[in-house]
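User: Can you recover a sequence for this backbone? Please restate the input before giving your answer.

Assistant: Of course. Working from this structure:
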C-alpha cells in the first residue's frame, strides 16, 4: 500500500522522528484509506524543536509587530486560495462533513485577518507619575518559546487560534498536533512558511501525548503552554507545568444545555437543537448534550426532534448528501456506547439511535447512530459527564428558575442557549447562566474569532482564545523614565 510519509518540522527542515517510528493517519469513514504516516516522536525530538524555537526567538522578537502581521495577512490570502483542498484533507482525516471542514478552514482565515489587524494594536498605556520629571508607561512583551497542544475536532481552526496571536506577539512556537489529525496542522504551518515566516519560528512535533505532550510541557525553555482537550488531561498539564512556574491556558470540556421555554419559536429551537447536538457528530466542546424542555412544549418538541433525528443521513463526510459523519476513532465509539448503557441503567429511555453502525458502507469506519435519550434526570451521569459523541439527553422542567438551576448544576461551564420571546428572561439568563458563552435563540455552537472563547469551572482556568488570547501570549513590562537628573525615591515620604 502506498501513502505519503510526513516528517517533523524543526528549524525550517523536515526531519523524521529520531527513533524512526511512525503512526498511521486513517480516514475514520474508511480505515482502508490511509491519509499518511506521521512521526511517532519522543522527548529528544521535542528538545530539538524547542532549541530551534529558542534560536529563532532571538531575531523574531525584534521584528516589528506590523511586519509580523503582514505574514499573517498573506497567510489568510493563501488559505483562501487553498480552502477546498485543505477542507477535503480535513474531512479525510477527521470525518466531519465538507460544509463543516470548509467552515473550519474559514475560521483560520478569519483568525489570520483578525490577528493581522492586532499587529498595530498591541497597545500599552501611559500614566502620570507621582514624581516630577518622570514618565511612566507599560508595554506588552512576548513570552518566549510557547508550547501548543491542539485537539482533533477542529484541527485547523483551533491551532490558528493559538499560533496566530502567539506569533504576532513575537513568540516562537512548538506545536503538537492531535495524533488523529496532524495533516491539517501541517497544511496550516506550510501556509505560514509560504507566506514568509522565518525558519524555526514555528516547529511541529507529531506523536502521542505521553511521548510529546509531556516533554513539551516540562521542557525548561518552554515559557508557556496553551492546551485544548479534555478536562482530565488538562488537569494533568496544569499540574506538570506548575512545577516550572509556567502559565497555562486551558480550554477543556463542556456539558452544554439548550433551554427551550413554552413561548419559544419551536421551529427555530428544533433547528438549533438538531445542529447543536449532531453537528460535528457531537464532537465539539460546545455541542448541545442536554436539551432542557419546559413541560408545556416537551411532548411536541420531543416528537418532532426524534422524527428529525431519525432522518439524518450518516456516512462519509466527502458525500455532500451526508449530514452526520463518523466519530474520529474506535475509542470515541466505545465512549458513546458506554454512556448510552449507563443512561439506560440509570432509568433513561432510548428514543432513537444508541448503536454503532457496522454494515455495508459503514463496515470499515467508526460510525454511531444519532442518539436521543428521554426521561433523564439532572443527577444522572448522562446529564453531568461529557460524552463527546452524537448523544443528547432530554430533561423536563417546570419554571425558568428551575431550568437555570439545572443548567448550572454541573462541573462544566462552557456554552448555554436559551430559546424564548421574553426579553426579561433573556437578560436574566445572560446574567445567571454559569458559562463562558450564552446564546439567545441560537444553538450552543458557533463561536466567532473576535469574541472571547472559553469557559468557567472545569471547562477552563480563566484564559480565553479569540479576544483575550494576546493577554496570554504577552507579558506586561512597566517602564519608568526619570529625566530629573537627580535621585528621586518613589514610595518614600517626599513631602519635605
Amino acid at each position: 500500500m502506498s501513502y505519503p510519509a510526513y516528517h517533523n518540522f524543526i528549524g525550517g527542515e523536515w526531519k523524521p522522528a529520531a527513533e524512526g517510528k511512525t503512526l498511521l493517519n486513517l480516514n475514520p469513514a474508511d480505515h482502508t484509506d490511509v491519509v499518511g504516516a506521521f512521526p511517532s516522536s519522543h522527548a529528544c525530538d521535542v528538545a530539538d524543536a524547542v532549541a530551534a524555537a529558542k534560536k529563532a526567538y532571538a531575531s523574531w522578537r525584534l521584528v516589528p509587530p506590523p511586519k509580523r502581521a503582514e505574514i499573517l495577512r498573506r497567510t489568510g490570502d493563501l488559505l483562501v486560495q487553498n480552502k477546498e483542498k485543505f477542507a477535503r484533507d480535513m474531512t479525510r482525516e477527521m470525518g466531519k462533513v465538507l460544509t463543516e471542514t470548509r467552515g473550519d478552514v474559514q475560521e483560520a482565515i478569519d483568525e489570520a485577518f483578525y490577528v493581522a489587524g492586532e499587529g498595530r494594536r498591541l497597545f500599552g498605556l501611559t500614566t502620570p507619575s507621582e514624581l516630577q520629571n518622570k514618565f511612566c508607561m507599560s508595554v506588552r512583551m512576548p513570552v518566549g518559546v510557547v508550547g501548543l497542544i491542539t485537539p482533533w475536532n477542529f484541527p485547523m481552526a483551533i491551532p490558528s487560534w493559538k499560533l496566530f496571536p502567539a506569533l504576532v506577539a513575537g513568540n516562537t512556537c512548538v506545536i503538537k498536533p492531535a495524533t488523529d489529525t496532524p495533516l491539517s496542522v501541517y497544511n496550516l504551518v506550510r501556509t505560514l512558511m509560504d507566506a514568509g515566516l522565518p525558519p524555526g519560528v514555528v516547529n511541529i512535533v507529531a506523536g502521542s501525548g505521553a511521548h510529546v505532550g509531556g516533554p513539551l510541557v516540562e521542557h525548561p525553555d518552554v515559557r508557556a503552554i496553551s492546551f485544548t482537550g479534555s478536562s482530565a488531561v488538562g488537569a494533568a498539564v496544569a499540574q506538570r507545568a506548575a512545577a516550572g512556574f509556567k502559565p497555562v491556558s486551558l480550554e477543556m470540556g463542556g456539558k452544554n444545555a439548550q433551554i427551550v421555554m413554552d413561548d419559544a419559536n419551536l421551529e427555530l429551537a428544533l433547528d438549533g437543537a438538531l445542529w447543536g447536538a449532531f453537528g460535528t457528530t457531537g464532537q465539539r466542546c460546545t455541542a448541545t448534550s442536554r436539551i432542557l424542555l419546559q413541560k408545556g412544549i416537551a411532548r411536541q418538541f420531543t416528537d418532532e426532534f426524534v422524527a428529525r433525528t431519525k432522518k439524518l443521513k450518516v456516512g462519509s463526510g466527502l458525500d455532500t448528501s451526508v449530514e452526520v459523519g463518523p466519530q474520529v476513532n474506535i475509542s470515541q465509539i466505545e465512549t458513546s456506547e458506554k454512556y448510552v448503557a449507563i443512561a439506560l441503567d440509570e432509568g433513561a429511555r432510548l428514543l432513537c439511535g444508541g448503536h454503532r453502525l457496522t454494515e455495508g458502507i459503514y463496515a470499515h469506519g467508526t460510525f454511531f447512530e444519532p442518539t436521543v435519550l428521554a426521561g433523564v434526570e439532572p443527577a444522572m451521569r448522562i446529564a453531568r459527564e461529557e460524552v463527546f459523541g452524537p448523544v443528547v439527553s432530554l430533561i423536563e422542567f417546570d419554571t425558568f428558575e428551575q431550568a437555570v438551576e439545572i443548567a448550572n448544576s454541573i462541573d462544566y461551564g462552557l456554552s448555554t442557549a436559551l430559546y424564548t420571546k421574553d426579553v426579561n428572561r433573556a437578560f436574566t439568563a445572560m446574567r445567571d447562566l454559569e458559562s463562558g458563552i450564552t446564546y439567545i435563540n441560537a444553538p450552543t455552537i458557533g463561536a466567532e474569532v473576535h469574541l472571547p472563547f472559553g469557559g468557567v469551572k472545569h471547562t477552563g482556568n480563566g484564559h480565553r482564545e479569540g479576544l483575550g488570547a494576546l493577554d496570554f501570549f504577552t507579558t506586561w513590562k512597566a517602564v519608568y523614565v526619570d529625566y530629573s537628573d537627580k535621585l528621586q525615591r518613589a514610595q518614600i515620604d517626599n513631602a519635605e
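That completes the design. The radius of gyration is 24 Å.
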